[in-house]
Amino acid sequence: MGHFVLLRHGQSQWNLENRFTGWIDVPLSTKGGEEALAAAQQLSRYRLDRAFTSKLVRATDTLRIVLAAIGQGRIPIEENQALNERMYGDLQGLNKDETVNQYGAKQVEVWRRSYDVRPPGGESLKDTAARVLPYYQERIQPAVEKGDTVLIVAHGNSLRALVMHLEDLSSQQIVDLTIPTGALVVYALADQGKLVRQDRDAASRARKL
Question: What the protein does (predicted)?
Fold first, then answer.
């Protein structure tokens, strides 16, 4: 039976500094490397067939650390910007607390958590899904349906868009879904090609980040 594993990259330097990152290419923090190694321990139970990642270094480095730690560095890997984090536009690089002081907590919460409201100059979660889902359906889903064990290393919002699709969550339900850095979300391929969530408690629904 194949498995489909989603992994959010380890903590980045800008996660540590509480900044909006988006498409800015920011490396992992020391803690982020440790989170990648912790994820590798959980992934060591699986024999991976292939992996997919965004183009951003915090994701590619997380994948590299994981595969080296579990001794599976020779599997096919595909990088694509369709899996990149949502683009935060004018908010990129800004400290989140300072942004709240400038725009108000309610407005920042809408920009960060809503489904279809864009931050200034940026993407909404709906916009992010519009590039993630076609890529998933064309490049990843066929491997999953074949029974391969597939790993995706990506970002909080690109993975939220994918979970929303896989679990048929509403635009209201997705507001409360957070995937912490270094966290896994695991699905198993069941009868008739249906993906069944195996770790429903692993993705925190508290609004941490």
Answer: Catalyzes the interconversion of 2-phosphoglycerate and 3-phosphoglycerate.
Of 34, 78, 79, 85, the catalytic one is 85
Cα(74)–Cα(95) distance, rounded to whole angstroms? 38
Active site residue 155: no
* CA 107/CA 93 separation, integer angstroms: 18
Q: For residues 117 and 111, is the Cβ–Cβ distance under 8 A?
A: yes
Could you please state the CATH topology (level 3) that the domain comprising 3-197 is classified under. Answer: Rossmann fold (3.40.50)
SS (H, E, C) 83-120: HCCCCCHHHCCCEHHHHHHHHCHHHHHHHHHCCCCCCC
Task: Sheet with 184-189: list strands edge to edge.
Answer: 77-79, 50-53, 150-154, 3-8, 184-189, 195-197
Is residue 113 a known part of a binding site? yes
165 is a catalytic site residue? no
Is 58 annotated as ligand-binding? yes
96 is in an annotated binding site: yes
**Of 3, 9, 123, 155, which one is the catalytic site residue?**
9
Q: What is the mean pLDDT of each run of 10 residues along the chain (209 residues)?
A: 93 98 97 98 97 98 98 97 98 97 95 95 98 98 95 98 96 94 94 77 39
- Annotated binding residue 86: yes
Q: Any idea which residue has 């990843």 for tokens?
A: 140
Domain spans, the chain? 3-197
